[in-house]
Every structure is written in C-alpha cells, then in structure tokens.
Amino acid sequence: MPDDRNDPLEKLAAAHRSLEENLNDLARSARSLGDPRGRAAALEGLSCVVAYFERSMSRHQEDEERSLFPRLAVLESVAPTLDRLRQEHKAQRRALDELRAAIERDGGADAAEALPPLIDGLRAAYQRYVACEEQEVFPAARRFLQASAMHSIMNEMETRRGRGGQGNPAKGISGRPSRPGGMRRGP
Ligand SMILES: [Fe+2]
C-alpha cells in the first residue's frame, strides 16, 4: 500500500484542497460584508485569510516551480502546459494583490459590492488551474518520475518549511486545514 505521507504529489493535491477551503472562507466572509453590524469583523477576517492565502500560495507555487516543474520540463507533451501554469501562478498573485488592495481601499460600504466578484473570479481561475494540474500534470509526473526524484521533491518541500528535508512523516507537511484563531493552515 502506498504511503501518502511521503508522496509529494499527494501533498501538492492536499495543498490545493486547503487553498480551496480558504477561498470558500473568503467568499463566506465577503457575503457577510452586507450586514453593517458585522462588516468590521468580516473585513478583519478577510484580511487574515488573504494574508494566510498569500503565504501558503506562495510556498505552494515555489514547490511546483522549483521542485516539480523542472523535473518534468523534458516531457514535450507537458512542457507547454507547465509554461501556462507558471503564467497562471503569476495571474493568481496579481488577483490576490488586487483583492488585498480592494479590502484596504473599500473598507466601507462599497466593499460588499466590490469584493465578491474579485473572489469569485479568483475561485473560478483556481478551479481551472487545479483541474489542469491534477488531471494532466500530476498523472504525467506519476508516470515519469522515479522514486528517487519523488523523494528529492519531498525533501525539498520539507526543507522549504524548515523541517530538515528528511521526509519524516511525523513532521510531514500537513495538507489538512485547521482553524486556530479562525485561520486555516495547510500547504
Ligand atoms: Fe498547484
């Protein structure tokens, strides 16, 4: 039976699930902006989730762009998709910058109208991106990469998180969302 705890592709997919949960949190917080009594708390919640999302998304993108994609670049069938995914990573960062700016700029009544479309756009783009990676790129990696390459990717991901890079499942990368203080953690 495969051990998912040391499988970098499982970890990357778990990071997608966690980021999706955070996008759902963002959408929920944005909906509560319509209630004037809850607006201040909703804006604070939005700021927290956006800050977390920026950190975790940045690390996830680094995992893919520095550890996974370079090892797949020799596959002619996948290389164009990898280029497109790098562009989508950039687009996600721009969308997040736009969202953060809108939260800071539209802290008043306009926020209830301005933010939901931005979040919906980010969610839709993210869904397309995740589908591409999980249906095309990860299966290609599963077919092509040797166990030693998978192990190296896992070690790099762990090292990126200051965990020593030994792939120790006891200290493994948690893809499971939790909510200390109302914030999710994960990828
Ligand atoms: Fe990804």
From TrEMBL:
Lineage: superkingdom: Bacteria
UniProt signal peptide: none
CDD domains: Hr-like
Limits of the Hemerythrin-like domain: 8-141
Chain positions covered by the region annotation Disordered: 158-187
Pfam families noted in UniProt: Hemerythrin
Name listed for the protein in its UniProt record: Hemerythrin-like domain-containing protein
